[in-house]
């Protein structure tokens, strides 16, 4: 064959267009709830969720050369371990703007794109204010690169020379829920505590993690858990199904006023700016509150739901706030049966599955109940001048002022009765398991259209409470004499030595949610660390709710909680 012909073919190959990169391999399409959440994000109706935990660093690690690099490697190695343990942390998503997005394989994860490090000078004047401003800014940031990166991000903030780091895990509800990220932090802390420089058996750096890139083993690229509706079976009555779907899908023009709508907080698409406030309560105060909750057959969640209704009843004018609908986010993991084929095949504890496995329970505070709250408060105000301040001061320690103290005394019995009712409503849903609105999402073929239509209707939900509960922030302490020095204890999936110098602990946590434009006007996110403080985060959309009202609700909530947490003789 002539040489010129070979040369010609070589030239054509060199000049040919480069081949297109292969499309990522689809693992499965999103489940009904996952698709619902993905549509909220793609339509810019919800943006971000963050669980920020403060970790203490072992002092021995701070006294070595290159301590920052060692801290960085250990934290990222621990993250890599958790990623390899949980499939939902290592998948991307294709078609986020379509009606049927899908989860796709990731061959590797580049931590330089996933984990951001920020270091502050020891001379930083007010790191706590800087941290809070940073959280407020990040909560309104949408995740990007969904095809090539998983549905979460991390930011690690550290003040040089201090014993702590703040680790923010950001996530979207199409992939994960708050309980998933709570578990992420707990498992990461366990892996960090298992790390020892001089014991190769306890190294946490996984195989395949090098130069901040984690290569996903081939056998782990498709082992995604099934969606929630395949793990938990929803059931409905025909009447409930038809009436609920009609209420959700009927045109806005056919909506009939019930007096429960949050007309004082109209749904607006712009501006998307989340305003938020946070306060913290010491563990001793929290334990007093929990003791009283148990004595009144309720929980902290039931109390918070009720307090928000009472506070808003006293803060809003009655003309456009006759009644309220509160909403509680409920974790369904405890109800998943181990008969699922996936659980039988993997032998995974359903409580340790990371994906979105939740539902919601609504609580109605009817116009009659709200009117009763206002009447009791008004009556207390009229009686205020007729009694001695000394007696009120004795009974209302923690109240903000005299008038507020009288109102709290007048409403205390009502609050406990209503909080018990809220707790009973949640328990009834968990015990019965039928007629769950979340399960009806299987009848929604186009979640994007559903959200667009909801934006045209009056706001139905006044507030939501998403309580992550208690984070296990420290390994159990072994009493002296019970274990040999340096002995190895099993904790979760890892082993660790009982050596105080190697203990990483979580000292506090903050759970933050961006506004969800067509959903609740207020979002309340409590979370605590075992034996430490309770954090309360309240958020709302700017220009929909005045900052003045948000500040007042936050202050009132703290006052009520301090009132219930007071020591009694």
Written account of the structure:
- The protein is built from 17 helices and 20 strands.
- It has 569 residues and is an alpha+beta fold.
- The chain has 2 domains: 26-226 and 472-479 and 486-505, Chloramphenicol acetyltransferase-like domain (Chloramphenicol Acetyltransferase, 2-Layer Sandwich); 261-331 and 357-469 and 516-546 and 557-564, Nonribosomal peptide synthetase, condensation domain (Chloramphenicol Acetyltransferase), CATH 3.30.559.30.
- The strands form 5 sheets. Strands 11, 12, 13, 14, 15, 19 and 20 form a 7-stranded mixed beta sheet that branches.
- A hairpin with a 4-residue loop joins strand 19 (522-529) and strand 20.
- Helix 4 (67-85) packs across helix 7 and helix 13 packs antiparallel against helix 15.
- The model is unreliable at 1-5, 197-202 and 478-498 (pLDDT under 50).
